[in-house]
Amino acid sequence: MSKKIAIIGSGFSGLSAASYLAKEGNEVYVFEKNNSVGGRARKFSTDEGYTFDMGPSWYWMPDIIESFFEDFGRKSSDFYELIPLDPQFEMVFSDGVMNIPESYDEMILLFESMEKGAGKKLEEFMKDAQIKYEIGMKEFVNKPCHSWFEFISPKMAKNALKLDLLTNFSKFVRNYFKHPKLIMLMEFPVIFLGAAPKNIPALYSLMNYGGYKLGTWYPMGGFSKVTDAMMQIAVENGAQFHFNSNVEKIKVENDKASALVVNGEIVEFDLVIASSDYHHTEDKLLPEKYKNYKSSYWEKKTFAPSCLIYYLGIKEKIPNLKHHTLFFENDLELHTHEIYENKKWPTKPLFYTCCPSKTDKGTAPENCENIFLLMPVAPGIEDSEEMREKYFKQMIARLEKHTGSTDLISKIEYKKGYCINDFKEDYNAYKGNAYGLANTLSQTAVLKPSIRNKKIKNLLYTGQLTVPGPGVPPSIISGKIAANEASKIN
User: Fold this and answer.
1) Which residues, other chains included, contact 213 with Cβ-Cβ below 8 Å and sequence gap of 6+?
2) CA–CA distance from 225 to each of 22, 130, 215, 220, 237 (Å)?
3) Which of 113, 208, 315, 390 is the most buried (most CB within 10 A)?
4) What Cα–Cα distance (Å) separates residue 150 from each residue in 13, 145, 453?
């Protein structure tokens, strides 16, 4: 039976849920508080001719993203062109640079050149990681996680030990590699899962497979091409989008979500899916007695980082810079400790630079560069313009040193900073987090915040604070799970 369904937020999970529910013939309305689609994956353009992706920039796990389009009889190539990056990215160390090749055979040779036997070890690592990827990303993450019994199946039982849920990722990597640069390379992908590698299950070596083995890609036109394509699919199936539409309250009558208050207007619905920040939804939109979790619950949770971002338009071409560059001259363990344990601005930070104009000329004017600087920071710390500028100057100095450029600051014609306060303002993000809940063992599967409201049967949650977790592919999957759950509600 067709339902009138409201979806709060148009990030990846909201777009995914809207598409699947509209395809089933439901009357779907998406309410977005900002003026464009995409949530953290929004884009913006400047008068100077630069176009910036605001959030995700790593196109990994292409098969998972492709499966979304296949569910609607489409292909990603119907909407955008995917370009493989070669090198996938570069890592800058204090004593040199390491380029990560697109070719897996070349990657094996790189590992072997740095540590005798490491090429063979990489093949063993990836063979194991592929098993985890096939189980984790094709079966494990597709569960609504109401109960551990969902994970009881002959296939899961057969492969349970292979998932390495009880081994920490740091120890797992060191079982294969000894060279510090190879260890940093293999540990890098889990930084954004929200905890130090020593606190992440070895299951997440699946990210190394989904990235390094399946390749690092770029959608021409920018990451917003993906959210634009998802919106187009939702609209083609009948979903309606409303921008600049701030949801102020979820009205509850007889233990059912009956309506939303949007920009002061009451709109009735049969079912509500909150792709908005989970904590914000419960804290600000629901009456106290209908919350799944109290404030103390969220205080005890381990969150993935926030970040300091700068969007820069630079009036010259920058030599010796790749599409993706990781600045790892400093100690990874110190930086992660200061994000997750000390919770302070970093002493000696690592950071990341994306320069899409190296691949996509349309993102910047001729002979100019589009630069995105990102430094992970602890969520909830004090965000000030003074602190932002301090780290901005550090990052620019290190960028200059790496590329051989001089006086880059004087060549900046567009500059926009973005940090904790902006994540709170634009996305109602708890403590200004950028990447959701950490994927620690104690916050995995059934131990994540429930996708269902336990007191209101027609209210569901989706996105990076519930199952399966943070990241673009998991958020797309989260929307599909929420849509499947919505279909079961009478």
Assistant:
1) 104, 126, 129, 130
2) 21, 28, 19, 8, 18
3) 208
4) 22, 7, 19
Question: What gap in Å lies between CA 22 and CA 233, rounded to an integer?
Answer: 9
Please report the DSSP string for 72-101 in residue order: TT--GGGT--EEE-SSSEEEEETTEEEEE-
Query: Under a CB-based contact definition with an 8 Å cutoff, are residues 100 and 90 in contact?
Result: yes
CA nearest 117: which of 175, 171, 188, 184? Answer: 175
Decide: helix, strand or coil at residue 440.
coil
Contacts (Cβ under 8 Å, ≥6 apart) of 166: 201, 441
Q: How many CB atoms lie within 10 A of CB 279?
A: 22
Mean pLDDT, range 177-188, rounded to an integer: 96
Mean pLDDT of the region 455-462 = 98
Query: Helices (H), strands (E): how many in the chain?
Result: 15, 19
Is the Cβ–Cβ distance between 46 and 214 less than 8 Å?
no
Chain segment 259-293, per-residue pLDDT in tens: 999 999 999 999 999 999 999 999 999 999 999 99
Phi, psi of 375 (to 5 degrees): -125, 120
State pTM to two decimals: 0.97
Residue 21, exposed/middle/buried by CB under 10 A (0-12, 13-18, 19+)?
A: buried
- 429 CB neighbour count, 10 Å cutoff: 25
Question: What gap in Å lies between CA 234 and CA 438, rounded to an integer?
Answer: 29
Question: For the purposes of burial, counting CB atoms within 10 Å of the CB of 468, is it exposed (0-12), middle (13-18) or buried (19 or more)?
Answer: buried
* 157 pLDDT higher than 70: no
Gap between the Cα atoms of 393 and 409, Å rounded: 9
Q: Is the pLDDT of residue 74 over 80?
A: yes
Contact 153, 121 (CB under 8 A): no
Q: Are 230 and 12 in contact (CB under 8 A)?
A: yes
Q: How far apart are CA 66 and CA 74, in angstroms?
A: 9
Share of the chain above pLDDT 90, in %: 89
Q: Which two tokens stand for residue 407?
A: 């006086």
